[in-house]
Structures are given as structure tokens and as C-alpha cells.
Amino acid sequence: MWDDVFPIDQVQEIRTKTTVYLGAGAIKKIYDIAKDLKEKGVDNVLVVTGRSSYKKTGAWDHVEKALKEQGMGYAVYDKVTPNPTADSVDEATKMGKDLGANAVIAIGGGSPIDAAKSVAILLEYKDKTARDLYELSFVPQRAVPLVAINLTHGTGTEVDRFAVVSIPEKEYKPAIAYDCIYPMYSIDDPELMTGLSLDQTKYVSIDALNHVIEACTTKTANPFSILLAKETVRLIAKYLPKAVENPQDLRARYFLLYASMIAGVSFDNGLLHFTHALEHPLSAIKPELAHGLGLAMIVPAVVEAIYPASKDILDEVLEPITKGAEGAEEVAKTLEKWIFSVGVTSKLEDEGFKGEDIPKLVKLVRETPSLDGLVSLAPVEGTDEVIKKIYQRSLKPIA
Length: 399
Fold this sequence. Notes:
Blueprint: E1 12-15, E2 19-22, H1 30-39, E3 44-49, H2 53-56, H3 59-69, E4 73-77, H4 86-99, E5 103-108, H5 110-122, H6 130-134, E6 146-150, E7 162-164, E8 175-177, E9 185-188, H7 198-215, H8 223-245, H9 250-270, H10 274-285, H11 291-317, H12 319-322, H13 328-341, H14 358-367, H15 371-375, H16 384-393
Parallel strand pairs: 2-9, 3-4, 3-5, 5-6, 6-9
Antiparallel strand pairs: 1-2, 7-8
């Protein structure tokens, strides 16, 4: 196959709404990016990141040097946690305001990038808070320039207009989607990802897999989202086992990263439905639950629910994983078996959820801003009974 010999150290410029630099060594593009920001009038930059990976990966060494070379002021907000909260976004925004930041650089996976997108908006709307933003009390049209340096191969947030932040006191985990938060530039460098833990490697890749299972079956799916979905599944099926076996396999990391990126473009076009809408309440209730793990636990039941309405597309897109399976239950079981085969074997009961929690979960799907909109895009009607059954079927292995 062509991907067996493709030169992964040839840094490619890939244009979506965002200009993405993809390839081993792409982090060095930050010097060109910093120069461009300076020429565009950026004086001070807020860096939004997690607690340690930005340093451990070596990304910060290049970013700091690039900012100093351009004479830019900067401050680092390094308190973003998985499933970032509105309070964290407000804290970072205050740091940016105090600095006079007129651009944001995110370094991390989905959580730091999503938090940074939120900060980029709030630096333009100085009278608003993260809760205003995520309870949809206003529609932003502007954000300061954003650069995303991606450290995981799963979310696709470095190429899309989405962001997710939790409101803890309400157990809400809403999503926003605005054109103003497409990153101006993104860096996808697989050399920054060889240190991902085994669990992170699995969870983030399963996140990308979920993106395309949904994006190719929504009511708004289009030929482009379906085309990208097919290639995403092929690459993840081929390369995730390789990365699990050898975390230092740079070719595997490269193509998982590329798969994640095109999955982000796929759902930026086709959008999402059940799996993400039903996962968000899980990790809102249990913020320690990895988003990708939550998705892995419920996606077989989602596929089972939507298969009658999306049989032809799912058979074609999932063929590298479910080849030979027939019928909704068998396809769902085969998908679940594949997820188990890469080492993700938890179901909802294993993570502390019980049958008596389901009414609350259904209620959160209905009440959390934005999630009902995702449910409405599913290829089958998202009634309370359908949602309830997906949760029930996800408590234990379908097989």
C-alpha cells in the first residue's frame, strides 16, 4: 500500500479552513508562524496548555524560542485539565487580559485546544464569561488569532470550529461551533506524540473513529464526509494495533494523526449525533472519565441503533473492522470485539454507572445546551426510549 512507503518526514501543507503543517518535524514551523503573527500586529500571546506535556514533548522549547525571536510578550496558562471547566477558561482569559494578549497559542490535545478556542473568543468579548459562551447566551462573530499545536491523534479540534467545556455545577458538557474559532495555523507533528500513554493512544484514536461513524451517518452527511470516513477507518484499523504494539512507531503515529485530522474535517462537514451527545453526560458526571473511553463504551450500541437506517454506508465505511458481519447486532458485536482487541474492554458498569443512572443521563442529554441538536441529526429518531436503550445496551458487553 502507498502508505507503507510514504515519506512521513516530508512536511506537507494541508489546507482546510485551517492551514495545517503535518509531518515529523513540523513543530519547527512555529518559527514561521510566529513571524507571520508578528507581521500581522500580534504583540502579546497567551499560551494555553496542560500541566506538563507541553514541556515533556519538547514543543515548548520551540514555541518559547520562536516568541522570543519575534520579541513578543507571553504568559503561560498551564492549568487545563481533561474535560476543562468554565472556571478554568475564565481564569485563563483573565491572564490573557492582564497581559494584553492579542493572540492565543494552544499546546496540547483536545482539552487545551478547546479551552484556548474559548479564551480566543472571550478576549474579544471582554464583558462575557465562559458560562455565557457555553450556555449560548450570545453568538460570537470574532476571536483573536489562534494557533494550535496538537499533542494527540484523536480530537480533530485543530482543524474544526468546535469546542467543548464543562459547567460543573450543572453537570453540563455543552459544545459550541463558530467559524471564528478555526485555528489560523495548526501543527500536527507525530514526533510530539510518541510519549502518549498506552491508554491515551487507544482512547484518542477511538475518538477519531467515533467522529467518522457519526459524520457519515448524520442527516447532514455528504459525499466528502463519507469519503473521509472510509479512509479514517482504514487507517485506524491498520495503524492503531501497530501503535499499541510499539508506541515509538513513528509511521503508525503519523497515520493515526492524519486519520484524526481528516476525521476532524469529516465531522466539521457531516457533524455528529448520538455517540457524542450521549457521552458528554458521562464525562460531565465523572470528569475523570476519558472522553474516548466513554465513546468506546457506547458506540457499539449506537451502531446497532442506527444500522437499519444506515446499513449501506456503515457496511462500506466499517468494512476494515466489520467485514463479513451481517445485521445490526452482529455488526455491533464485531465492532465491540475489535475495540476489545486493542485493549479497551470497559463498559459502563465497569466505570461505575448503573441502570438506575440512566434516567438522569437521558435528562442531561435533553437539558445540556447543544446536545439535543446533535440528537436531532441522527439517522433514526432520537426518542427517550432510543437513548435509554443505547445506555442500557452499553452497561455490559453486547456480546
